[in-house]
Amino acid sequence: MRQSTVEIIEEATRFYRTECAPLNITPTIRQYFYHLAVQRLVEKSDKGYKKASRILADARVRGLFDWNWVFDATRQLHRPPTYESLEEYFELVKNAYSRNKWQSQPHLLEVWIEKDAVRGTVQSVIDRYELPLSVNRGYLSVSAKMQAVRRFRKDGRKRVVVIYIGDFDPSGVNMIHEAQNWIEEQSSSGLLLQVDRIAITEDDWNDPVVLRLSVNFNDSRSAWFTDKYGDEVVEVEALAPSVLQKRLEKAIRKHRVLTLWNQQVMEEESDAKELERRLR
Q: Second label for 148, Cα 20 to 30 Å away, from 2, 88, 134, 243?
């Protein structure tokens, strides 16, 4: 095995164990690629990405890199819920109850991410704060946007805040504005949809430390982007996973009224006792 290959596996292992695992983060191959490119172990190019992907795939097959250290949400087994006994089901119901602690907040809060690739980074934070997550996978379809309109109408609050995470490239900048405008126009009920973009921001794009890639000139929106920002883009994966987690948690806390949250926590504790009594 080449020395360069050994160094890549060792650095990827160190990255996971010291920077990701303590925060309950499972990185994608692209996040490993960005880290390795910053360490100058692979090229900052598509060729470098393919090299990182190939080496880490081979390392997993050989038992040199743990299979559980790479996040891949695209090929998962979906199994219908079944139970071995009624007792198992009752135990699940008792432990699964969680009160909607956001119901008394002054506005509805959701988290939207442009692509599934960062879900392994943000999922633990979202679960901890019990927030809905929308994985948009690029531009939202008309159906997905209308589902959002109906969801917001049903909730009834006039203000909706979306914490957004997406790339800073021609489509990545445009797609959330397109969705925001469409949803507000279709709501026809005075809905205010506020987008709190926490990554990638213009400040990230201006940060010389953040790794950049070349713009995709096949993107039909590249002309206006290059006129305003030049020919380089920044992907979400360029941010250290710990930075993205901290930003998300800070944004969630900013939009949460803690006293109202704590009231719901107390109600949940009371509900849990009542549920246990009924299941006896």
A: 243
Q: Which of 218, 272, 219 is nearest to 94 (CA)?
A: 272
Given this model, what pLDDT does residue 75 score?
66
pLDDT of residue 92: 83
- What pLDDT, on a 0 to 100 scale, did the predictor assign at position 221? 92
Whole-prediction pTM: 0.89
62-85 confidence digits (pLDDT tens): 999 999 999 987 766 778 889 899
Total Cβ atoms within 10 A of residue 162:
20
Element (H, E) at 165: strand 159-165
